[in-house]
Amino acid sequence: MGKSVTGIATNAKIGINLGPVWDIWANLDVAMTDVSPVSRHQLQSRRKTLRRQRRLTISQSLWRFMAMAGLTTAIFWGATRPVWLIDGPDQIIVTGNELLSHTLIQDLVPLDYPQPLLKVEPEVLAQQLRDRAPVTAVEVTRQLLPPRLKVQVQERLPVALVEPPPRQDNTIDIQYLQAGFLDAEGAWIPKSSVVLRENSAPLPTLRLRGVQTQYQRYWPQIYATVRQSPVAIQEIDWQDPSNLVLTTELGVVYLGPYSPELEQQLATLDKMRNLPNQLGTEDVAHIDLTIPTAPTISIVEGTGDLSADPSQAP
Q1: What is the model's pTM?
Q2: CA proximity to 251, closest of 231, 265, 268, 267
């Protein structure tokens, strides 16, 4: 009995308190009993519902695709019917032109008739028309009802009338610009394309004679200087590249070959505007401004040239 009591007392001293652990297991067991199990029937029902929803989504997508394809086909079919065709130039409406005729622009539109309206590419057509017509800007739009093409253009404005020189035997191999017009940028405009209208701007009065094609690139600089000249200039003769000849209100003026000194030459000519008070215009054969700081005047009657000091002109 003594041993037994002592053993029990010892075990009591080293015993472990398992109360909290049993509480946790008890709570877990209650929680597990609260979760209702999912039956096999419910799982099958959910699968059927998901499959039905998936089939419905696929069917809707398929019908949507078929509807779009049908609509596209119907539009294409309708657009290729004769009612949606461009049959000729009379269905091309031109606006913005003042000098160029409607017929010219219509004829320059690169289309093969009849042409389905929806097959026309406006941007490509506009670029091709810019390359073929004397215009700086083109906008092409399509109109469905009634089927038409609208072409809005911005024309090149002519600033000088081009006249070729009389044909000579020694100029057979020289290429001159044909009769027509030049704009401020040096682009050539055929005379046949310009038609005066009631409200259109008048044609330029400045004449440009005998321009070789190789010197055409200098025209923008020449025109920019000439148009600012205080002395009126009626004609520029460029038949001889070594001598640019002007016809002005003071008479014929020799400038020599074109050079950046043109502005100074015209400034010297402006200082000589009182020349008619000294000599009659009919008495002056020409004014030589090849050297702008030392101009000379050739008279019709006399034995030589007269030196002219612009600073001493009355």
Answers
A1: 0.65
A2: 231
